[in-house]
Write a structure and sequence with these properties.
This protein is of the alpha/beta class and 140 residues long. The protein has a single domain, classed as Rossmann fold, CATH 3.40.50.1010. The protein has six helices and six strands. Strands 3-2-1-4-6-5 form a six-stranded mixed β-sheet.
Length: 140
């Protein structure tokens, strides 16, 4: 499902919201709070989320819980990975000299119409086309 969302949440934000309550309570609180914003995500993010949620952290999610999170997250505005998204990601990768995977996240955020991408993987404050990256874990 594609629909508008003000923000796009990267995989790491969702992982902190789902799994970091005990390991990183400060990051968990911030990430969990972002779930109340009108956010969207993508097929890439959901796949990365599932793959990491069941194997990372001191207490990974069990398969049932990880699937439940994916089901809930997929109800939000959602960008599927298609040929156009891949081409746009390649263009952004070349233009900004970032990894393909990061570029695919930016491309999905742009396609969703999200002006803000919450992530700790890209440069805080950097603007990539129409998308500004914010690392919500940095002290202001």
């Amino acid at each position: 499902m594609i629909g508008g969302a003000d923000v796009f949440l990267d995989t790491n934000i969702l992982l902190y919201a789902a799994t970091a309550r005990l390991d990183s309570p400060g990051k968990w609180e911030i990430a969990y709070g972002l779930l109340t914003t009108p956010f969207g995500t993508s097929g890439q993010v959901l796949g990365e989320f599932y793959a990491n949620a069941v194997r990372k952290g001191s207490k990974p999610l069990d398969d049932f819980e990880a699937r439940r999170w994916v089901e809930l997250l997929s109800q939000k505005p959602f960008v599927p990975v298609d040929a156009n998204l891949v081409r746009k990601a390649i263009e952004l990768k070349t233009r900004y000299q970032i990894s393909y995977w990061d570029a695919a996240i930016v491309a999905a955020a742009e396609k969703l119409g999200a002006g803000t991408l919450y992530s700790e993987d890209l440069n805080h404050g950097q603007i990539y086309g129409a998308v500004k990256v914010i690392n919500p874990f940095l002290q202001s």
